[in-house]
Amino acid sequence: MIENLITTMLLGLATFAVVQIIAKKFGPLPRYVLPVAVLVVVASHAIWGQYSWYPRERDRLPDNLVIAETFENPSAFAPWSYLVRRVIRFAAIDPTAIKDVEGEEGYKTVRAHLRGRMEEPFFADVLVDCQERRLALITIEDGASKLGPWQEANKDGLADKVCSAS
Prior knowledge:
This protein is an alpha+beta fold.
């Protein structure tokens, strides 16, 4: 996140410098040119960062991980996101690491790699009920496994990928 802020500030300063050089070379510019130029460059960089984050993160994943689910969230603070959806977080799994739960028909576990824009990566063990299409996080408290609340699985999401793996 701090890299984003530094990059944005440097782009703004570079734009300011370029506009000042142009003004010295070609004479005075209208007063609105400098703030408009800086605003356009900084806003363009922010929008580019929002839309390029997911493809860059997806390409950085190890080869054994596949994207199981993506999450989009339009925002009033980014009105263009209602027109062109952007991925703000995703879950990836290793299909070879899916395990059946012994003694429980239709239950599987997998370690999910969860990533969100401007968030640290998070790793979670997930229990999937393939018959009911629901999932729950498995946490460790005081050395014992604890099952979180069940959540309905999204269609074509993590639960479907885990349950369809053989």
